[in-house]
Amino acid sequence: MSFLKTNKKIIGAELFIKCLEEEGVEYVFGLPGEENLDFLECLCKSNKIKLILTRHEQGAGFMAATYGRLTGKAGVCLTTLGPGATNLVTSAAYAQLGGMPLVMITGQKPIKNTKQGKFQILDVVDLMKPITKYTHQISSANMVASEVREAFRLAEEERPGAVHLELPEDIASEQTRRRPLPKSIVRRPIADEKSINQAIELIEKAKKPLLVLGGGANRTSTNQMLSEFVEKTKIPFITTQLGKGVLNERHENFLGCAALTNGDFVHKALQESDQIITIGQDNYEKPPFIMREGEGTKVIHIDHVAANINGIYFPQLMVIGDIANSIWQIKESININPQWDFSKMLLTRKAHLEHSTKIREDDRFPIFPPFLVRQIRNVMPSDGIITLDNGVYKLWFARGYPALHQNTVILDNALASMGAGLPSAITAAMIYPDKKVISVCGDGGFMMNSQELETAVRLGVSLTVVILNDKAYGMVKWKQENMKFSDFGLSFENPDFVKYAEAYGAKGYRITDGDNLNTTLEECLNSPGVNVIDCPIDYSENDKILNHDLKSLSDKL
Q1: 242 and 271 inside one domain
Q2: To which H or E segment does residue 213 belong?
Q3: Cα separation of 225 and 234, whole Å?
Q4: Last residue of a domain, one of 328, 348, 368
Q5: What is the pTM of this model?
Q6: pLDDT in tens, 420-431
Q7: Which stretch of DSSP H or E encloses residue 130?
Q8: CA pair distance 20, 14, nearest whole angstrom
Q9: Domain holding 49: CATH number?
């Protein structure tokens, strides 16, 4: 019997499920419609794949993308046609820009014999083209196996991202003798010897080299090689927001996270360096530094793929190949230059720690953001996972929350979408049921997918959601204040979040002063199930500290 074809006929939907099983899929996150019913019927017979029913398609996409980020295997989500498919657009962009492997499956009306005219029909394939690596309508059940294998290959290979397959209703029920294609064995190529030697020469000749760890370094097993490289060379390192946790951020050579565009202590270190070595630098992420033509600083780009050259990033040398192997090759042959001088760079670390220590002691009420960051770090175990929605608090956590292990701080600094924090936490709690999980959300972002509280309760996961309540879109309001504009158009009212949580079957808590924040967090982390904390937040000093104080202090170094 051929692996690819037998005499026994099955329908396209059943073949699709068998292909997903062959790919090792554990979960399909989704909100099905009638066009998915053959797929759903076949899925219910699988003993390897579990359907995670969500309350909104966007939540399903965020959950699947987070699965991809945490495991390196493509997450899978399912929706119907029309509005179900359009609700996936933000999730697709989230995965594509964030480098997260995601396979999206959408339904469609029959393509061979229409039965309802143009009702609900959109060209979803064309819609997905600008925001995916690949999008295709499956036009024959005989094509299911090859299309699924290609989708997973493209989603998972560097640079990972989103792919989309449309499975029309009549193709799902069409018979075929085809069978799944086996996964290919793939070895990532390594950088050539000449580029490695050039990188070594540039680093050895530099006076003040500096490592910048980006999102690409967080996607693969680079931790061990980077640790050995830093221990041997003592070269200081910083991270981007998506690079948090690649190395332990309590390391004595860690200078900070490039959370702000400029004017922070870490930018002083970047200005001091004459040779920046970027590891997994991703142009989709907000840049940690700006290159300017004619300036003396040189940049080495070490990544799986070449850099996209633009006006702010044009490295003089690219080392292209498996990142861990490239670092290992450089580490093995590099000679320590006794003229390297990191003294001024390490002053930026000292200044950052002194400033952070000072401001995080402020236990005012409503809660001061640095104090919140400190309290959450205090109660979280070293391998605990925090997921951040998008808002100004993300900057406070990126700057002030030391990530001690890889992928323990899940945030989005590429699409920077609101609404992903809670769905991401649900996925983390599913994958790692023995780890503590906290989702920190602004009140604006939380309400965009708050209905997934029901999903979390139904799944029986344990997680804590901290809602930062300022009754406004705080990030935009901060920018509005900085630009000296009127306070206009960005404030709203919230429901009673304690009652809101209880209505879904979760537990609700409310912070009433600085003293009970720590005890409430500890109680929630040690209580099974879904816990929601309404935490009033004081953003009144965002502009003063982030735009003025930090710049003034760093300029003095």
Answers
A1: yes
A2: strand 209-213
A3: 14
A4: 348
A5: 0.95
A6: 999 999 999 999
A7: none
A8: 10
A9: 3.40.50.970
